[in-house]
Amino acid sequence: MSTMLENTECIDQETRLKDFPILSRVIDDNRLVYLDSAATSLKPVQVVSEMSRYYLEVSANIHRGKHYLSEEASVFYEEGRYKVAQWIGAAGNEVVFVRNTTEALNIVAKGLNLGKDDGVLVCTDSHHSGYLPWLEKANTQLVRIDSQGMVDLSHYEELLKSGPKVVSLTHCSNVSGLYAPLEKMTQMAKEAGAIVVVDGAQSVPHRRVNVNRMNIDFLAFSGHKMLGPTGIGVLYGRQQYLEKFSPVYLGGGMVDWVDTNSYRTRKIPHKFEAGTPHIAGVYGLVAAIKYLEKIGIERVEAHDLEIGKLLLTEAKKRDYLEVIAPGGNAVERCAIVSIKMKQHSNLGDIARMLSDSYGIMCRTGHMCAQPLVDYLADGEILRASGYLYNTKQDVIDFFQALDEIQRTL
Amino acid sequence: MVQLNNEETFEAAKGEIDYAYAKTGFFRRHLDEAQLSPSSIKTRADFGKILPTEKKHYRKNFPAGVLAEGYSLNNKMLYRSQSSGTTGERLQTVEEGWIYMQRAVDSLSVYPGLDSVLTVYPRRHIRYAAPNCSDVECASPNSVMKDRILNDGTLVLSVYHDMLTTPERILSMNIEEIEEYHPQMYYIDPTHLAFLLRYTSKRGYTPRKAPVLTSYTLCTKTSKRQIINVFGKDAPVVETFAMSEIGWLAAECPKGNIHLNTKSFYMELLCNGRNAEPGELAELYITTLDNGCTPHIRYRTGDAFRLVDSTCRCGSKFPVVHTEGRLRNHIFRDGVSILTPKGVDDLIDAPEWLDLYKLVQTDENDFIFSFIANEKYQDNMEQYIKDGLFQLLGKNINLRMERADYIPTERSGKFISCVSAIGEKLAEKGVQL
Q: Could B165 and A239 be called an inter-chain contact, meaning their C-beta atoms sit closer than 8 Å?
């Protein structure tokens, strides 16, 4: 692997290694190349430090006491909510802290109180989390995608005529890495009178998503895909809807008043946060957002698109690879490429070789999007996904490793 | 040298030192540790030898060390102020209710005719400001008007802690309650009232007119413009300055100048440990004079002013000052306050297109200016603010300008128009001007 390229740097090399010490790890003499960020991102020191600070210096529960430490934790937790709200253009009380994107989408599907006669449009490129909660509750229809992996907008338009109550959109596919034309699709859904729910798990980490300007009613995303910790996610919900939702969980922390026969819930968003929440997770999430802010989300986005373009270009150069959902020319692609090897179907083997022989971490399987992967690839796929700490060299190393493996097959 | 206090006030301050030394354990220790005694304080120079006191002293020593002997916390005539939080702002204080009232009346004496509104009976005042409670544990959206009428006749209007998230039904309820209550006076946070008035204006409703006394936060020109647009022709809009643990310290006169209340307090404006010259940025220190429940001696207010070296045409003998904002909210670079919240406000002024703004210093060189604009806004109207901030803060800063639909309040429920992470840290370390 001798080809050296200049980094398209989001962060300089020194900062990269200082902030992400895991990237200095050497496995069997191979430097670590992490290309599985669509599954979960690496965590910078700043995030881990903030979580440690909570556990080692604060540690108290929130909203449950008058003592200094409890106030400190409560203030930080709620300021974290404001931070998230400003990050996505929402108001503070429209941000609910949840475990992850999956939980957020389930809360919405349950809260909307749908019946089997209510129509829900779901895009075929949905993650299972953006599909199964609707399949369970309502009359779900899948919007087709074309062979390039793009949403078939004419089919979408056609289905909208049936008057669905909800449209559930995947902003960026975790399989193809293609961004859906969200603003256009949202506008079409609004014109059809539908509530718009957006799975932003793969987009919010990479670009600014402003719920107000994009007219989104619900947005779900996870902290762990945007440098934050696991176990903390965000549900944004428009105030008018959240106020009507019944809480999924009942218990401490979400009621104003309880007597032997009844209870009165707190106002939004606290009525959705029963029990002790993931306080350290919020500390970490805030640190992650600050980290992204410090770099500048526009810079993160530009890097994301550039790495995505390089992944696609390099994959297309190789005859032995088949790109899953290459997208059209004008399509925006994040730093994800999913591929098949034409001569070799056991991609699990390949992923193990990439890991053990080259130190390159990437993922194989159905990516929790089985209907899509079965449709496009008829079996498992291999996915490489990058983030702000990846360099062009990482991408080149990945493909050169594949080349070497290919020669042995 | 402008003399803030007359001899009579200085004598009263010495009396307060005698009283605090005799009656409170904290102040007795405070003087003893400095090897001072009340009898050693004879001149103003002697007075300056007393180490200033701060919130942390009153926090740490409450109640046993600061409550004057003879008082009980169960005394029903005592008024208790309580501020939560985790910074140096967290504090409980008790004082006799009549003392707070006298300080208010003395302060407002600079506005003839208006001081009587404070003492009128029966009282129908309206308060509209950050709720005195935790966002989560109360600020309940389910309260009704009678739940929020205090014993003294003040109706507290409901508002969410995070002001801009207050739902429309509560704003509608505010309007109905104002209509029903016929207020004699509004005692409000100007940012909050401006927010309510934006809502009422959109609905073509004009609230009942009554004098408006602003307090709680710096009255920005933007908020004042919005309030005066509604109230100005028929009712005065008067800036007042108060601290929850002390009460009223200053008020605006009919000529638009802010006067310090040097009748209720012995006041010092200090910079670099000395009395400030007119025009110098200085922190206000106060000494109470009442021999009350919680005497404060050379107490750091944490608020900055500039003394004005001229008498006011209103005729008041109280000294005139320019308010500059809380020290912890100043913009600091290299450990020095280089721009005050008032300085920011002067730059921004009160353009018709602007509803609300906030400048945040997130790090030594990093700034975010967020603003909420109305329908009169056109592209780049904020350019002069950007240019002005670069000029005032230096060309080497990182400044992000953001047009927003929402800007959160502080966790206290107050909306502070200029906030500095550096200022907060320095304030925690006791930075002085």
A: yes
Instruction: Please name the residues between 265 and 294 in chain B that touch chain A, using a CB distance below 8 Å.
Output: none
Active site residue A334: no
d(CA A221, nearest CA chain B) in Å:
20
Least CB–CB distance from A79: residue in B167, B370, B411 = B411
pLDDT of residue A7 exceeding 90: no
Helix (H, G, I), strand (E, B) or coil at B374: coil
Mutate to test the interface with A, among B60, B84, B86, B171 (most CBs of A within 10 A): B86
**Where residue B234 falls among pLDDT bands split at 50, 70, 90?**
confident
> What does the block give as tokens for A340?
């098949």
* pLDDT given at position A105: 96
Residues of chain B found within 8 Å of residue A89, distances taken between Cβ atoms? 404-406
Q: How far apart (Å, rounded) are the C-alpha atoms in residues B353 and B377?
A: 5
pLDDT (tens digit per residue) in A34-66: 999 999 999 999 999 999 999 999 999 998 878
Antiparallel, parallel or unpaired: β B366-373 and B212-214: unpaired
Judge: A89–B408 Cβ closer than 8 Å, yes or no: no
Helix (H) or strand (E) holding B121: none
Structure tokens at B260: 């310090």
Give the pLDDT confidence score for residue B323 in this predicted structure. Answer: 96
Q: What is the DSSP string of B23-92?
A: H-HHHHHHHHHTT--GGG--SHHHHTTSPPB-HHHHHHTTTTTTSPTT--TT-TTEEEEEE-SSSTT-EE
**Interface contact A86-B406, CB threshold 8 A:** yes
What is the chain A residue with the closest CA to B366?
A294
* Two tokens, residue A108: 């919405």
Residue A214 has pLDDT above 60, yes or no: yes
CA-nearest of A215, A87, A207 to B407 is: A87
The residue type at B394: G
CB-CB neighbors (< 8 A) of B404 in chain A: 86, 89
- Residues from chain B contacting residue A239 (CB–CB below 8 Å): 165, 167
Average pLDDT over residues B290-310: 96
CB pair distance less than 8 Å for A91 and B162: yes
ipTM, interface predicted TM-score of the complex: 0.86
- Examine the pLDDT at A326 and tell me if it is beyond 90: no
CA dist A396 and A376 (Å) reads 25
